[in-house]
Specification:
Radius of gyration: 24 Å
Strand content: under 5%
Number of strands: 2
CATH class of the largest domain: Mainly Alpha
Shape: elongated
CATH topology of the largest domain: Multidrug-efflux Transporter Regulator, Chain: A, Domain 2
Order of helices and strands: HHEEHHHH
Number of helices: 6
CATH architecture of the largest domain: Orthogonal Bundle
């Protein structure tokens, strides 16, 4: 069996995954990516596994997972006994958090829409319902 020798530069990996070079270095410092092999010149050298892992990290971030949660997901992905169940639990928790944020954003949107609708857009600032709502503790949006 022939083992693949890492041959991708950090720039090539960054381009293939669609992330900045500094992002790759950051993930290495944070322990999300293993330290790459070094060429004789000292430059980093990556294999396909780094591309796969970076895509995983990027997609998990796109779904709202924090770096700590991504670290857990990466560890769980190698756990053949409880990995899938634990991954699902993490995803369910993330989904609940996102649904809570959406509900809060909808509440904020509705309050702001009400203020915008009630403001004539002209007149004295002290009569502006938006400015009054922002400056008055008792008046809620």
């Amino acid at each position: 069996m022939i083992t693949q020798i890492p041959s991708l530069t950090i720039g090539a990996v960054a381009k293939r995954v669609g992330v900045a070079i500094d992002t790759i270095r950051y993930y290495e410092r944070e322990g999300l990516l293993p330290e790459p092999q070094r060429r004789a010149s000292g430059y980093r050298s990556y294999g396909e596994s780094a591309v796969v892992q970076l895509r995983f990290i990027r997609r998990a971030k796109d779904l709202g997972f924090t770096l700590e949660e991504i670290r857990e997901l990466l560890a769980l992905s190698a756990d053949r006994q409880r990995g899938v169940k634990a991954v699902k639990q993490r995803a369910e928790k993330r989904l609940a958090s996102i649904e809570q944020r959406i509900a809060e954003l909808q509440r904020v949107r509705d309050g702001l829409a009400e203020l915008v609708a009630s403001c004539p857009g002209h007149g004295a600032p002290e009569h502006c319902p938006i400015l009054r709502a922002l400056g008055n503790e008792e008046e809620k949006a």
